[in-house]
Amino acid sequence: MRIVESFEQRYAEFPGLNLTFEVREGIVKHSRDYSPEEHPELSEYLLDRRPPLEAQLINLTDEIAYDTADLDDGFEAKLFDLSSLREELPLFGEIHREMERRYPQAAPKLQFNETLKRVLDRLATDLLESSRTLIERSRVSSVEQVREYPQRLIGFSPEAVRQKDSLRQYLYQNFYSHPALLPEKEQGVQVIESLFQFYLDHPEKLPRGYAEQARQGLRHRVICDYMAGMTDHYVQRLHQELLGGAAEAGSPSRFGPSYIRP
């Protein structure tokens, strides 16, 4: 919130992006519920109520996108194979067998792609249908009624929750915690630490809005806020430009930006 409300400089009369309350509320509350007692600084965002439906939806569609993209990255990197996927992920196995029958001459990667596309579609369709049922049963008809409802109204069916949990558990065991990724993670940490230290030593190298904030004595906080918005590719490029080097084979971008997320 500090970034969109303070650090971004787009207008002459005020700082920030001038986002509506609902957008800012969604940013704060989309992925989890906060206690007003534990986070009084966020009290204006109605922490004792549910977020709007759009924010609830974004949270779960993000999960679908991340999980299926990570499954693709791990398979592409040969960290797991089709037999493992079929055995440990029933949803994947069911669809993959169908793709083998439908496309018997296709290369294994293409069969995988067709399977993954349908896994994503199955989860997204379930989310839409289950959420529609939850909303209809709740009888809400306004955003205020959504906020006052005792639980979130966007959600998967119980079966899809089990399928998603299996997928996430598989990724943690076979991708995020894979020994082959440990050097990559360590290299990524080193790149971030060295870039952070560079900005501590040279705050004038920060973008103007951040540099001005850093001069007010908030240097560590400002640098954290600035770097929190960086992608892995951007971190790597900045490291190379500012420090004359970057992670090469061990770049955090090798498997895409999401593998270090946990």
List keywords for this structure.
262 residues, mainly alpha, 3 domains, 12 helices, 0% strand, disordered C terminus
Number of helices: 12
Which stretches of 5+ consecutive residues score pLDDT under 50?
A: 246-262
Fraction of helical residues: 55-70%
Instruction: Give the SSE string.
Output: HHHHHHHHHHHH
The counted number of beta strands is: 0
- What's the pLDDT, averaged over the residues? 90
Approximately how much beta-strand content do the residues carry? under 5%
Which class do the helix and strand fractions yield? mainly alpha
- The dominant shape is flat
Over all CA atoms, what is the radius of gyration? 22 Å
Q: What count of structural domains?
A: 3
User: Biggest sheet: strands, sense, closure?
Assistant: none
Distance between the termini: 22 Å
Commentary on this structure:
The chain has 262 residues and is an all-alpha fold. The chain has three domains: 2-45, no CATH class; 53-177, no CATH class; 181-243, no CATH class. Helix content is 63%, strand content 0%. It has twelve helices and no strands. Helix 4 (82-88) packs across helix 5 (90-102) and helix 9 (182-201) crosses helix 12 (232-243).
